[in-house]
């Protein structure tokens, strides 16, 4: 008898098959002496659409709502049905004694496998492979410690509850809003509160009134001093006359040093990456969207096997990983990392509580390198960037603290306080790993103050009197809160308490415990959905709410806009996964909530108006089309939801303007396509291709490698080398 292994994707299935010596190719599977390996393609089975329960639900009609299935039905996804039936044929082979679930080790991965087993009505015993990386070593170790599948039934119940709850609320509320206001309006328990956070920030920006403020610096004893308020330590004043009078009073005066304070300080490396922190960092540094970062991480995990499981919400590793750290360091001891790793390999690893803590590891530990050697030349430019972030963070937590001596000087002149600061590095520590890179996050930085930056300070003593040589006044204006980027929006979703006005202490605590809006695995998709629904749009790197998004928030029930709702759900789902809460109770509560939600939408007073109608008519139904901004494109979309026609008018390309070097838009008009830049430069696509060909563009990475290889061979086969080859040296 054999065991059937069910992986989530073909690439992982092939790796498992290779490690377990399965070599015989079947239709949608690979067979060996002891195992048969098959795979899903993500979800092969999903919850049935409303019309599968009753044909009348094909019509979007308010009178049919709410739709609450008495028994949930599963359907095979048409696009991947062939693989489902391949898997099913393997499940029911007479020589298959048990099933080993080897899908991603998490809530959604469990759902992928269990739905296939449920739909096919397979009752064979189940075991579970639970690993955080897909290296050969991890696979072997995982198979030597297989778990009983029954241990993960509660996790499956939590995953199923989440899917059914989202179906109940999302589908019913979306249909109710669309029918009521005759517009394509979608909502959900995570996307709507996220949209509300963006809207609230926009309101703050619009309501903001800038104020001018002033500061004063002076030079005394070759030191730059900043005026400072004695009461609160601020270096800003909103009274122009006061600062001007102080500058006048300082002329010809002296400054007395009143305090010299030297303090030894140290800072430790930032914590290891979880997915949200990695997505945030990648967006801030490279402009990658959350979805792009997740896709890149998935390739580094599945295809290259150089990084561990991406969908983690932990920033710590467990004590079981500590013995493998040196092996992981050896695996990434290449390229730019050779400067930092050898010295770590010579010393014993110190398992600090700052990055090793079993209690803070959830289903998966932080994202770290695997024991698989990295071949940097095989990684794309984008993959190198993400890999570099993870490796440097991993190395840095093993380095000592950054230590420095902070010197603070305080002085007095004309009855006012002045301050100067200096810093002397004692031990560069972990900062050497980042070299000149400034990793600091300035997203939430307040308005610039006039406090002097760290400077090289001479040796001064308390009581010294220094003549004031110069003074100058600085001015500035208070700034509104910054608009969200994908990086800061991810932070807001992870910690929405900061962006709420609720005083409910219990709700705040719940949000903190559940990790905010959505999960690390779903946040990228939620942001993409908001873009795809044209509820938000991008201007540069900033995210703006659209007119459609603003109107939707006025029509959606108040409760659905609150982050507390999704926090409450996640808390209950976590309890279901731990066996502390019953799935049936959760769904019964959700059914009552759905009923109340539909009643509220049905009785609400409001209206929706398309303010982006164009005179262009839909080629399918003849109705006027809407002009919308997608994430990277401008489109025309039919206003009729059932028609669904859309066409791209212009998209942001990777082609750079020859004048200002910014990315150009490719605009389509009829059969002709033209590049247009914000600076005014225009160029037809045909002319662009001709110019690029003339410049020698379009050479691929493989072409370059082939050329370099030929150059090396030519360099060896010279006449001089040939002459030397015949000489025998004693």
UniProtKB/TrEMBL annotation:
Gene3D superfamilies: 3.40.50.140, Topoisomerase I, domain 2, Topoisomerase I, domain 3, Topoisomerase I, domain 4. It holds the Pfam family Topoisom_bac. One of its GO terms (cellular component) is cytoplasmic replication fork. This is DNA topoisomerase 3. Belongs to the type IA topoisomerase family. Its cofactor is Mg(2+). It comes from the Bacteria. Mg(2+) binds at residues 8, 104. Residues 186-191 are annotated as: Interaction with DNA. The active site is at 309 (o-(5'-phospho-dna)-tyrosine intermediate). The record marks 60, 167, 175, 311 as: Interaction with DNA. Keywords: DNA-binding, Isomerase, Magnesium, Metal-binding, Topoisomerase. It catalyses: ATP-independent breakage of single-stranded DNA, followed by passage and rejoining. It is an enzyme of class 5 (isomerase). Residues 2-135 form the Toprim domain. The gene is topB. InterPro entries: Topo_IA, Topo_IA_2, Topo_IA_AS, Topo_IA_cen, Topo_IA_cen_sub1, Topo_IA_cen_sub2, Topo_IA_cen_sub3, Topo_IA_core_domain. The lineage of its organism: Bacteria, Bacillati, Bacillota, Clostridia, Lachnospirales. Residues 152-598 form the Topo IA-type catalytic domain.
